[in-house]
Design a protein that fits this description.
Shape of chain A: globular
CATH topology of the largest domain in chain A: Alkaline Phosphatase, subunit A
CATH architecture of the largest domain in chain A: 3-Layer(aba) Sandwich
Low-confidence stretches of chain A: none
Largest interface: A-B, 27 and 39 residues
Distance between the termini of chain A: 18 Å
Number of domains of chain A: 2
Radius of gyration of chain A: 23 Å
Mean pLDDT of chain A: 94
Number of strands of chain A: 13
Structural class of chain A: alpha/beta
Helix content of chain A: 25-40%
Strand order of the largest sheet of chain A: 9-8-10-1-11-12-2-13
Oligomer: homodimer
Number of helices of chain A: 15
């Protein structure tokens, strides 16, 4: 159901919902013919699947490979085609930058231009962070009238630009031709109200160009994904529950904050995250807990490391299950098959364990093939929250 | 497909469609680990399932527990989120009140107020119908300028108020605070055109208050779900067929009438309904026949009675099948698991038997788990009609 209907039907209750997101959970067979989940020894997940409802979630749509933003927003109940998060905002979330609702954020790339000013390398040879960070420091000296300017290194050639002030508009185009051989472009206003913003951005780029022109290898930059913190309805308000997020990585904390969850302070390991979960168990109704290692391994194309990551999370399943949430879900934001070495469009295994009114299933284990014939079928990830709310006794009847 | 496309594609034909709705069909396992359908001896349904296409229908949306209105409208092809029926209208349908399209209907509750006029019991101790009916008689003496007023007992503390006249608006709020300790509220107009209607309602409530003030235990009332007969496109017009409804219970007859079906006079038992069906077999193309007992048993939380109800309907399956409809469907408007003792959000077993072009299936029997892996999958109930129309040879090609 959509968020409007969810808001209408939701009622407060005493129940608890626990959502474990294994980042990049889904995989594909390697030459052995078996996927990461099929090769991993995950007896706890396999056993839990046999007492649960299973299926496959489609993060955004058939064939759509999602980024982390849409992948998570869908699991939080937000239609990822309707609620979009600009790249600039995601970069800000990713480095824990405290973005305000009126801030304008852009993703910056250091690049290399020739003597004509045409781009020769869009990433300046993927210049390392230790070299790009001092460039960010230099750029921080640029002043603009009426707004504060922040320039923060992200990673390698990537940085974050934030303008803070009144009346900034995100109705501006990228200052990035996105191809070699072209000159960096000016940002253009898409509406009359955005003219002053476009001018500020282009002033900043012009000043930056002067500061960088004699640097090497990065002697220029481009800006894209110029965006504001999107207005998101608050999940706790919609669902009438207290929601907490536990994630070691900043971007996931940021996404949770965007939808109104309380972000709990935690440590760097998943064991730390579990300790945080247990410490706050009585204070919240909904918990999102995030496990990153599986995605990182998939991105690196490291099949055995992804298997190991899945085996690691399996050792924590009993700890989570023993908390006896009314609804315990194991989900992924998207697939990151090691054989793809990146995110993919494949539907993602999903396990739904309800304490009450659980009809049971005939799923044999927790992997892509077993979940494909689970009773939940292949369904949109944005429905996960509604299902949880229903089984947690948090929805009233629709219609008389 | 939606009703607009269905209207565009439908063509007349000689074929017949039979839709059996087993009210509250879906269930859940009890401590035995098996659901009502799994425990029931329903060899005719099980056998038919093996020669049919099976699946699970989602009445409204994932996690949504539907009332009878949306549950049936979906099976009739209407998007239950788009076409809603107000509570006042449903109450009118439920007692066979002949509601006109300009009538305004409200669901009334007799309640108890203290000397300050604050509600102390929202249902006046669930006052019995034999006590509330005379109160309705007394309230029928209230006159309002320019409109006719009807007050009809429904059941226990519930009654129906209908205003009949020109220019009545349903853009008014409930006259019901829905909580103990508050005073009954005035109805408020949501648009300027609705002001006279709100005034009429509040006048009526004020007069009712005087009439009831010395009664016991019900000395006041509240009104909610103030609604008009919603404008519904006509199913026979959309589908170019003659449609008949056979239902012993008034509410289901009323819902069928709302969408333009002819309601056939029938008796109190399902055997009566079948006799009516047979008697009119040649006169219609589409039949909706309703079986109530399964829902009633589920609502009562009586697992064995629900099993018995399912075994009863099974004894009629051959009778229905032998009519040789081109399409014979066995569906439920929603699940009413005995372990829930009420409606639930669980998808509902669905059996689709087509005489022609039936691709076959591997479904083993008619129950929740078997249907979950049927070839129709888990799909929205509002698509049932389109499927039937196609197999009945009543839809032309889309696009060249």
């Amino acid at each position: 159901m959509n968020l409007e209907l969810l808001r209408e039907l939701s009622v407060p209750a005493e129940s608890k919902i626990l959502l474990l997101v294994i980042d990049g959970l889904g995989g594909l067979p390697n030459e052995s013919g078996r996927s990461e989940l099929e090769q991993a020894h995950i007896q706890r997940l396999d056993r839990l699947a046999q007492e649960s409802l299973c299926g496959l979630t489609v993060p955004v749509g058939v064939g759509v490979t999602p980024g982390s933003g849409p992948g998570h927003l869908a699991l939080f109940g937000y239609d990822p085609e309707k609620y979009t998060v600009g790249r600039g905002v995601l970069e800000a979330l990713g480095i824990d930058f405290d973005l305000q609702s009126t801030d304008l954020a852009a993703r910056g790339n250091f690049c290399t231009v020739d003597t004509d000013g045409k781009i020769t390398d869009r990433r300046a040879g993927r210049i390392e962070t230790k070299h790009s960070a001092p460039l960010c420091d230099r750029l921080s000296s640029i002043k603009l009238p009426g707004v504060q300017v922040f320039v923060e290194p992200v990673k390698d050639h990537r940085f974050l630009l934030v303008l803070r002030g009144e009346g900034l508009s995100d109705q501006v185009t990228d200052a990035d031709p996105q191809r070699v051989g072209a000159k960096p472009m000016l940002s253009r206003a898409l509406s009359p109200e955005a003219e002053p913003t476009a001018k500020l951005i282009n002033d900043w780029v012009a000043q930056a160009q002067k500061l960088l022109r004699n640097e090497h290898p990065a002697n220029m930059l481009t800006l894209r994904g110029i965006a504001k913190h999107p207005p998101m309805p608050s999940l706790p308000e919609i669902c009438k529950f207290r929601a907490a997020a536990i994630a070691a990585y900043p971007m996931y904390r940021g996404l949770a904050k965007l939808v109104g969850m309380d972000v709990l302070k935690t440590g760097a390991t998943f064991a730390d995250e579990i300790a945080t979960l247990k410490a706050h168990w009585d204070s919240y109704d909904f918990f999102f807990i995030h496990f990153k290692r599986a995605d990182a391994a998939g991105e690196d194309g490291d099949f055995q490391e992804k298997v190991a990551a899945l085996e690691e999370i399996d050792t924590h399943i009993d700890d989570l299950h023993e908390l006896q949430a009314d609804v315990f879900m194991v989900a992924g934001d998207h697939s990151t098959p090691a054989v793809v070495a990146g995110h993919s469009w494949h539907p993602v295994p999903f396990l739904f364990h309800a304490k009450n009114f659980n009809p049971g299933d005939t799923t044999q284990g927790f992997n892509e093939k077993a979940c494909a014939v689970g009773s939940l079928g292949t369904f949109p990830a944005k429905e996960v929250l509604s299902l949880a709310m229903a089984y947690a006794g948090r929805l009233t009847k629709y219609g008389a």
